[in-house]
Amino acid sequence: MSLATAAEGAAPQENWLDKIGAGHVILAVALLLYPLVASDFFLTQIAGYSMIFGVLSLSLMLLAGYGGMLSLAQITVAGIAAYAVAILGSNNSNVLGFGWPWWIVVPFAVAAAAVSSALIGWISVRTEGIYTLMITLAIATATFYFAQQNYAIFNGHSGYAGIHAPVFWSINWRDPKPFYYLCLGLAMLSYAAVLYGSRSTFGMTLQAIRDNPRRMRALGYHVTAHKVFAWFLAGILAGLAGVLLVWFNGRVSPGTIGVDVAIDILIIAVIGGLRHPIGPFVGAIVVILMQTFAIDIVGAERFNTLIGLVFLVIVFVSPDGILGLWGRIKPHLAQESLRAGP
Amino acid sequence: MSILDQPSSSSLSGGGMTRRQIWGLVGLLAAAIVAWLVFAVWPAWLNAILISKKAFVSAILNGLTLAGLYFLVASGFTLIFGLMRNINLAHGSLYLLGAYIGYEVTSRTGYWLLGVAAGFAVLAIIGVVMQVFVFRRLEGDDLRQTLVTIGISTVAADLMLAVWAGGTYQIATPEWLDGALTLPVITAVRSNGVSVFLTYPLYRVVVLAAAIVIGVGLWLMLNKTRVGMMIRAGVDDRAMLSASGVNVHAVFAIVFAVGAGLAGFAGVVGGSALSVAPGEDVRYLLASLVVVIVGGMGSITGAAIGALLIGLAEQIGLVYFPTYGVVLTFVIMVVTLAVRPQGIMGKTR
Questions:
Q1: Is the backbone of residue A93 left (phi > 0), alpha (psi -120 to 50) or beta?
Q2: Chain B within 8 Å of A5 (Cβ-Cβ)?
Q3: Alpha-carbon distance A186 to A55, whole Å?
Q4: How many CB atoms lie within 10 A of CB A17?
Q5: Mutate to test the interface with A, among B88, B158, B285 (most CBs of A within 10 A)
Q6: Nearest CA of chain A to the CA of B31: how many Å?
Q7: Do B323 and A149 touch (CB under 8 A)?
Q8: Which residues pair with A168 in a beta bridge?
Q9: What percentage of chain B exceeds 90 in pLDDT?
Q10: Which of A51, A125, B145, B247 is packed most tightly, with the most Cβ within 10 A?
């Protein structure tokens, strides 16, 4: 992808097109015009859903790619936001449901997600590397079982149903087109924010901490605080995705935050590639497309086998996912065209 | 001279006790309290607080049995982790596969012991195959090794669902393991002066005994044999072990065989005590993770301590605060991480 290098090494006198990158502009226009050609199914079930999971995986990519912290708890954080929407807003499960308006519920839900993400981060940054994966997996699994057993807060097995996306400006935001633009807006914003953030002082410091925490500590940086703040930021992204997810499904149950979903998020991020924020979206589209159409190839039930095998092949062949594959194939393609040309 | 006299850990200066002695005293006191709780006839006020003596002692016994099961699963997990630095996230799948194999063999041949042996043997072979064909190819890349185990667990869970469907199975235990054991623990005294003794399923006692025997066996293997010496050396410094002329790959294969075999063994034993169903793999993976986080990576003793803590916490939580039981497990994990990030028996690296 030329996106990765498009805006780097910027000269001071370049115009706005160079600054943003031509690839980004083309992509944005294509995505904005996509509803003109796509059916409702492709708008919500494929595109919208991919973007929600893209943002979720982006929050993981932010932690793993820039912070070196591989987390399996992102769906848990999103689930906290989703449950918060169900509990603070209205649902038809006759449990809790304060009935607050959406513009109070959403900030609260996202804040709850961000704070719990920071807490999870604070617990897991005490250890390093592969241990983080282990602890976040334990947290994700424990939360799943807790949500399943607890009826007072999580309404146990059945969870909450009947959660509606808001209706304002006389638009029902769960209708295919508005919902698509909602997802697109969030996806673009978070993509741009992560891309911008990665070049900010904080982003640079975080990457330096990833590469050499001891040196950064010696230089006087508060390593733990930076990592926990990265978790907080990732929690905001995951929380926003969680809100959209619960509006999309209309319900939230322990199955939403199950371990298989947690692993799916990691699979999406790894398949796409953890080096660049576009990776998670590529991975999400690939996985969601496979999820939807694998039924025709391998039957409805064996989808997980297929996706597991694809994941295994990608981990074996290219550690950097599809982006890494592309990065390796591109020089060859360029060479071919040079030879073929005059 | 004054520098040398610094009372760093000595009990010689003054009449105080060493840390060790204090901890020993605390341990003795705790043991005495537990012994009294188990064997004495409870006064009414204690029954009022803890529901009933029967519930309390049963919770403890169930906790111990579960701890035995957790230990069997987690000991393999911790050995593989300690030696190879990769988290085998397919370990829960190994447990479940062992349980299914045990069920098939037991129900077809009618011999339960044969099922147990098959569970161990088949999974040990699978473990070696995984080591040779998967992990050896990704040597030195811990993260990718872990990611691969995620892929394997996804595929394995799905394939097991395809073969055995979503039903719940129960492995039939042989007759000589059925029945109940009357323990010398008085739960209550009837009004006519007759004491009521606690009865407990014989099979669960056998599970606990098996876990203890295997735990001691593992400890002996690790500490008294040549292979065990190599494994311990490998946990401490893999490169140095390889440099001193040991075939590290053979050691890895042995550890993987023992670890996966124990998971399969635990699957059959656990599947007879509880039940076999999809989703159990995640439950035992979580148990292994928490046990190893709490106990410390790569330590058998740590796995035993961790399994005891988690098993007891889970069962006591089940009796006294039913829907918040998981939180107790979680709190244990967080407290351990806060106080000792490397786990109770873990070494800092």
A1: alpha
A2: no
A3: 8
A4: 10
A5: B158
A6: 30
A7: yes
A8: A171
A9: 3
A10: A51
Q: Name the pTM for this structure.
A: 0.79
B261 pLDDT band (50/70/90 cuts)?
very high
Distance between CA atoms of residues A26 and A20, nearest Å: 11
Q: Nearest by CB to B337, which of A70, A123, A270? A: A123
What's phi and psi for A160, nearest 5 deg? -115, 140
Query: Phi, psi (5° rounding) for residue B173?
Result: -85, 150
Whole-angstrom Cα distance, residue B310 to residue B326? 10
Q: What distance in Å separates the CA atoms of residue B189 and residue B206, rounded to the nearest whole number?
A: 28
Collapsing DSSP to helix, strand or coil, A162 comes out as coil
Closest Cα in chain A to B288: A138
> How does residue B125 score in pLDDT terms, banded at 50, 70 and 90?
very high
Give the model confidence (pLDDT) of B289-298 as tens digits: 888 888 887 7
- pLDDT tens digits, residue range A206-250? 888 888 888 888 888 888 888 899 999 999 999 999 988 888 887
A65-115 pLDDT, tens digit per residue, is 888 888 888 899 998 998 888 887 777 776 777 767 777 888 888 999 999
Least confident of B149-158, B195-204, B310-319, B331-340: B195-204
Sketch the domain layout of chain B as residue ranges: 55-278
| Residue B302: closest CA among B219, B223, B238, B227 | B219
Tell me whether residues A301 and B292 touch, CB distance under 8 A: no
Phi and psi torsions of A223, nearest 5°: -60, -50
CA distance A156 to A163: 17
Q: Alpha-carbon dihedral of residues A129, A133, A139, A143, nearest 10 degrees?
A: 150
Cα of B289 to nearest chain A Cα, Å: 6
Query: Residue A182 CA to chain centroid, in angstroms?
Result: 15
Q: Are A216 and A209 in contact (CB under 8 A)?
A: yes
Closest Cα to residue A248, out of A15, A25, A56?
Answer: A56
Which residues neighbour A327 within 8 Å (Cβ) at sequence distance 6 or greater?
Answer: A320
- Answer for the pair A71, A63: CB distance below 8 angstroms, yes or no: yes
Provide the 10 A C-beta neighbour count for residue B147: 26
B-chain residues near A270 (CB < 8 A): 147
Contact B168, B275 (CB under 8 A): yes
| DSSP annotation string for B186-199 | EEEE-TTSPEEEEE
DSSP conformational letter for B200: E
What are residue B270's phi and psi, to 5 degrees?
Answer: -70, -35
- Host H or E run for residue A231: helix A223-249
CA A239 – CA A252 distance, rounded (Å): 14
3-state secondary structure of A155: coil
Residue pair B207/B171 in contact (Cβ under 8 Å)? The answer is: no
Query: Pick from B144, B153, B330: which is nearest to A319 by CB?
Result: B144
Q: For chain A, what's the residue count?
A: 342
Domain locations in chain A? 21-258
- For the record, the structure tokens of A291 come out as 């999820």
Give chain B positions within 8 Å (CB) of A315: 144, 147-148, 151
Alpha-carbon dihedral sign for residues A46, A48, A50, A52? negative
Rounded distance, CA B287 to CA B308, Å? 11
